Amino acid sequence: MHTSPFSPIDIGPLTLKNRFIKAATNEGMSTQGLPSKLLVKLHAGLARGAVAMTTVAYCAVSKDGRTLPNQLTLTRESLPHFKALTDAVHQQGGLVSAQITHGGCFTFLRERSSRYPLSASGGFNKIGMMSGMFFKQAMTETDMREVIEDFANGARLAREAGFDAVEIHMGHGYLLSQFISPMYNKRRDHYGGCLENRLRFPCRVLRAVLDAVGRDLAVICKYSVTEGVRAGNSAEDGAQIARMLEREGAHLLVLSAGMNAESITTMFGSSFPKENRVQQKNPLIALAMKIQRLRDPTVEFRELYLLEHARKVRAAVRMPLAYLGGAKSLASIEQVMAEGFDLVAMGRVLLAEPDYVEKLATGASKNSICTACNRCVAMMYTPGGTSCVLGQPGDAELNRQPA
């Protein structure tokens, strides 16, 4: 008898009313580094649609931690705006998680406190080619202590803003992932080499966040189980990473995959449309998207496209796991639950239908309308932020107003 996706579950100090999480998806709904009124509306709508917990994507833990200039940043000044968002979600009966992160060398910002963007290793910065930052610098022990404190402080601010959980982003090629990945981490000290060493700094971040807020908030880690590139981590490595994060005390792992620059189709499970409807005005992002489309093989979407990888993690640990990757029908969701995953995280499906979970619960629907076309990803850069092309575009006016 497998667990019902509509049953409650405890994650750390938190109880979720069902097994559905809205995965973090960059919405393009931040204005001057603050949540916009449109972002509040989006997350409140997800809670109203019966999602147990929604995730606010990419909250930078410092100014240097941003990838783009207007990115959400957890600061004392931004707290009232985040509070407006968490209050709106709670009013609709949902919980809300802040994804806390640092971009490392994955940044398009030129103004920073260090000469070059920080990363696991120094040298040529391929990500910086588009913004003229051709070099990155290896973090020193002092840099690490500062960034660890930034994460702990970001988590405390998230608690003060009314968030119920924090999700430490350790995947997709951002700073912590740059330590975990053998493609980025070429260090010769005890932060480089074997997987155990490469996890040392991310585990220190996790420990500091747990110490700071772990009694009050669920502390979640999202990471790439496989990096989808021969030179990167495999799913076998992903299972070992899970063991280390379990040992360090994480309350939940969200099992993603792929890297932003090297293997975006691994992350999304399908190619980006060649005729992408959105004309990107920012020439850097337009170029990046073009390179992405040229480099990536054509991949046809299939449901549960990350299941084989995720199974290896499920076999390796006993802790709660959230399956992410192409669950877009009741049959898929029930299969994931039957295979022993504790929660299902969904991104595109819930952008297409914020009330999908409610429709499943009432029996009004089984299959999502989402076609996994990935156009919502490109919509992120439009004035109205991300939206499903099957629905209405976001309200640009509402997106200009801070929460």
TrEMBL record:
It comes from the Bacteria. Residues 6-366 form the NADH:flavin oxidoreductase/NADH oxidase N-terminal domain. CDD domains: OYE_like_FMN_family. The keyword Lipid biosynthesis does not apply. Pfam families: Oxidored_FMN. Gene3D superfamilies: Aldolase class I. Coiled coil: none annotated. Keywords: Flavoprotein, Oxidoreductase. GO terms for molecular function: FMN binding; oxidoreductase activity. This is NADH:flavin oxidoreductase. It comes from Pseudomonas auratipiscis.
